[in-house]
Amino acid sequence: MISTVKRVKKVQRRHRRHPAVFPSSLLDMDRRRAGSIHGMLMIFAEFFGYSSPFAGGVGGPRGSSSLFGDNIYGSIGGGGSTRGTRFWGSLFGDDIFGSMHQGLPRKVAPAENKLLCSLEELYKGTTKKIKISREIAHISGKTMQTEEILTINVRHGWKKGTKITFAGKGNKQPNFTPVDLVFIIDEKQHNVFTRDGNDLIVTQKVTLVATLYGLTVHLTTLDGRNLTVPINNVIHPYYEEVVSTEGMSIQRDPSKRGNLIIKFDIKFPTRLATEQKSGIKKLLGPWH
């Protein structure tokens, strides 16, 4: 910068002495050149705090300072020299990088709801339609309420605890991602059967006489069939009759099913007459 000013002054002196040799156009050219350089240096001084962009280079008067301050990365992150911060702040605002992080929507925990299904529905599969109402809040403070019908295809063999997720179908708040809706399968209590994994369990009430003479169990299956199960063995309190492939549908393989387990609740008499005791003793013999 100093050498440029000296050059202009030198040309001015020569122009005054010899106007024909040093025309004013040459003087104007040097003035414009000096002005443009001066303008550039003023810009550097504004952004970086010193006029020369290379003043802070290795061996320069400012030691180890770099073009964008002591540490360009520290300046971006908020630490280090403030020169880089002034530079980026002048171009994009006071805190461009902080604003970028603040602008990212935050994740919200999903909203979970139970979806009750009967054993018949889980045995055969079904389609459920659920009407939902959601609120969408805007930055302005206005809230809009919308309604939608969701369709859930319940597959045969689904178990309690199975989750179905509808991404972004919940409420929406400013600066947050829309809430995910999660439906969790739950089983309704059945009048006849209880479920244990892929097996179905039924408890049949029987009399003491039936346990000795045998009986036939009649059931209506979950798909509406009439099932007849003859019991030919002597029934004791811990006896279970297992009927294969009459249990729940298995999701992985539609052709397979679990077992049907029949348990027995034996009704013992509260008292016996003398004649009844004698008859039982005679019937059973001495083996007891």
UniProtKB/TrEMBL annotation:
InterPro entries: DnaJ_C (IPR002939), DnaJ_subfamily_B (IPR051339), HSP40/DnaJ_pept-bd (IPR008971). Signal peptide: none annotated. It comes from Hibiscus syriacus (Rose of Sharon). The keyword Transport does not apply. The keyword Chaperone applies. GO terms for cellular component: cytosol. GO terms for biological process: protein folding. It holds the Pfam family DnaJ_C. Gene3D superfamilies: Urease metallochaperone UreE, N-terminal domain. GO terms for molecular function: protein-folding chaperone binding; unfolded protein binding. This is Chaperone DnaJ C-terminal domain-containing protein. Keywords: Chaperone. Residues 114-269 form the Chaperone DnaJ C-terminal domain. It comes from the Eukaryota.
